[in-house]
Amino acid sequence: MTSDQSRMKREHPSVAPKAAPRSPKIVIADALPDSAADLLSREGWEVDARAGRPRDELLRDLRDAEGLIVRSSTQVDANLLAAAPHLKVIARAGTGIDNVDLNAASERGILVLNAPGANSVSVAEHTCALMLTLGRSITRADAAMKNGQWTKQALLGTELQGKTLGLVGLGRIGQEVASRARAFGMQIIAHDPYISEQVAKDFDAELVTLDELCERSDFVSLHVPTTDATHQMFDADQLARCKSGLRLINTARGDLIDESALTNAIESGQIGGAGLDVFEREPPIDSRLTALPEVVATPHIAGSTKEAQELVSTEVAASVRDYLGLGIVRNAVNFPSIAPEDLKRLQPFVDLAQKLGAFVAQLATGRTRTVGIRYYGDLATGNNEPIVAAVLTGLFRTMLSSTVTLINARTVAEARDVEVVESRSSRPRNFTSLLSVQLHTSESELWVEGAIFEHGGARLILLDGVEIEADLEGSHIVIRNLDEPGVIGTVGSILGKAQVNIARFALGRGSAGAIAVINVDEPTNTDDRKLDEGLLESLRAVPAIRAADLVRI
């Protein structure tokens, strides 16, 4: 082993099973700066870098390839993977992996890498550019000048200094925007349930609710992924709660905003303008929204700078080199750091842990502070890091996005200042192995326990101190209620009236009250889902019911 290889192993402690020392071919399928191919070629790899080749030609070129580097143009689906029997690694030159079939890649044992944060500065600067353009009507002023018009009075602007900037999301990009906004003299407030008070304080940001952010902000900038919770989070109702004249900026994901509602809000004067780099449909066709003079629109270029592309390209090329040459894993999206023999022993509990994490995440409110994980019985011995990663994956994947995996779950927790506390007890507790997860947030504490049944798979056996037995699969309505007659019948009537079929009805009760976990059938068509807020509100309206929540596993 060379001194460089020894150094790389020291600097990158996450080491996968050692791969072949040299790859016969790495295919670069999308347009990247020459620096990526140059880096790999210098190391002796055969590099096939051609963007825009026909699909059938790409499939032929992948027959003997061990590495594939793409941007967003190439669709890495199951058919492509089937045509690449020797493929070991896919590198996405960027952050999002929407164009990569992650499940298909994982099933084939193909490592998927990305370059998170490499374009954060570029996106943050573009956000500031849109904010300045909106504040000073720069695009309208430029258009007037090009038309020979000198319309100073009609183009009265506003300063950023002293204004309030609301950041929805205070991750990498949100933090970069906050740093620049401080230089403008802006007051910064932020809504991010997964960021601690200390992290916000480091960026002079005050954490607030989404409604308060909308009511107080002069400018709002979005920096969150699309999840069930954030999809069209700025709809007609949310826009109506905004401070009159607020200017909205989106360089994150197009479907965070209901574009029709935003168009109406701008036309009515409720929203003063918008700076948009992303859209529900790209490119937008016959868009009323982009035609409005109060809207500054750019064609998804926030991360497109020479510097960002160079950084992304060299980062993914180096990651591919490290993995294929030395077995070193960096910026992996789907790789669990676990030996094969340990994986076989722990796999059922890894599955249980992820389901418990997802279950408790959907019942929690407030900012996550601490995750407690306790192992009982046989599970109390050995290295349980995969179980920790699985709990965090279930927790944060529900809260954030599907790209949270076993390999990066710890990093996600650390970035959000979430403390993970492990404890062990050799006492079996009625099961040879048992897993307990406690979630402490700024508003609540939740406690769940689960076990593996010999023929029944993963089961929930305790919720907030109440013994219960429920499957951890499918859709569940979780009800906490007073332990009094008639509640079960009332619940059944409400569900029956809504034509929701009950698959299983698990009950438990303790000194503080009763709990029901109802496994229900749900249409797979998301446009025809019966389990909506209206049904939950009907359940919550029952005097004896303290809480009713929907949990999907």
Provide structural commentary.
It is a single chain. Strands 8-7-6-9-10-11-12 form a 7-stranded parallel sheet, sandwiched between helices. It has 19 helices and 22 strands. Helices cover 35% and strands 23% of the residues. The protein folds into 4 domains: 3-118 and 306-326, 3-Layer(aba) Sandwich (Rossmann fold), CATH 3.40.50; 120-297, Rossmann fold; 336-471, D-3-phosphoglycerate dehydrogenase, domain 3 (60s Ribosomal Protein L30, Chain: A, 2-Layer Sandwich), CATH 3.30.1330; 474-553, Alpha-Beta Plaits. The protein is globular, with a radius of gyration of 26 Å. With 553 residues, it is of the alpha/beta class.
User: How would a crystallographer describe the biggest sheet?
Assistant: 7 strands, parallel
Total domains: 4
The CATH architecture assignment of the largest domain turns out to be 3-Layer(aba) Sandwich
Structural class: alpha/beta
Query: How many strands in all?
Result: 22
What is the spatial order of strands in the main beta sheet?
Answer: 8-7-6-9-10-11-12
Q: Mind telling me the CATH superfamily name of the largest domain?
A: NAD(P)-binding Rossmann-like Domain
* CATH fold topology of the largest domain: Rossmann fold
Radius of gyration: 26 Å
Strand content: 15-25%
Q: How far is it from the N-terminal to the C-terminal residue, by CA? A: 46 Å
